Amino acid sequence: MGLKAKFNLVMLIAFVIGLGLAGVLSYRLVQDNARKEVLQEAAIMMGQATAISTYTDREIAPLLADQLKVRFLPQSIPFAVAQANFRTLQQQFPDYSFREPATNPTNPADRPTDWQADIIDLFRRDPKLTEFVSHRDTPTGPILSYSRPIRVTDQGCLQCHSTPAAAPQTMVDLYGSSNGFGWKLGDTVGAQIVSVPMRVPLERARHTFTVMMAGLAVVFLVMIVLLNLLLHYIIIRPVRRISAAASEVSLGNMDAPEFTVRGRDEIASLAESFNRMRRSLANALKLLES
Q: Which CATH architecture has domain 12-198?
């Protein structure tokens, strides 16, 4: 095996190992960035829902308080208003969703699905848990869900959810007396759950990963070509010329021209040493002949 073949074999092994390590690290990096991007979207949606609820509680609910004695208006309930806004948004972005399911909701439409009930149970079992991130696969692709617990921290919530007798009669007339009661201060009754699709960020991450790996492969090929050129012109060709000159001298051809020394590198030093050895050998032969 020649010097160039050995050099290329070592470079190929180094490239495979380096590309493998770079691939693992790059893949993790782009996947983490995609997840952070989705989490940021989910946090923005959650913040928007909180802003809508707060505005409804402070600005809208007081204006409708007197009308609740005549007719119950869901527009006065912060959670209902936030979900209604996101249902409108969902018509344009069907893969995005925001729900505030409860295990014992006033409106039966707010009952949780099985996976949402598991999240609520998780918050109920760990009162210190303030947020939870989960993933699930759907026919349209993976979905990331960002959840926060709904805990009864305000005595005002119990005016509508403690007993049917304490609740506004108009609410009982609309929803009945079987749902949404029995809540206690400190209870975890539900969760705010934002679901964001990961399909597009993951596709972008895969595209970025592919481009990055292709770029590394191109850089390696360019380096191999340049290094082979340098190896050929700076090392292999001069060594071959020195080897050919040494063969001529070993066969007794002392008339072969000396090797031209260029530069001050190791190859030049080798050539100069060879020329000195050739001259010494020629002088020694002349002394023997005389």
A: 2-Layer Sandwich (3.30)
CA 49 to chain centre: 26
The fold for domain 207-289 equals Helicase, Ruva Protein; domain 3 (1.10.8)
Name the pTM for this structure.
0.70
pLDDT for 56-80, tens place per residue? 888 888 887 777 777 877 777 888 8
CA angle (101 as vertex; 95, 103 as ends), nearest 5: 145
DSSP H stretches of helix in 69-109: 78-92
Rg (alpha carbons) of the chain, rounded to whole number: 39
Neighbouring CB atoms inside 10 A of 65's CB total 11
Q: How far apart are alpha carbons 221 and 227 in whole angstroms? A: 10
List all residues 6 or more positions away from 11 whose beta carbon is below 8 Å from its beta carbon. 224, 227
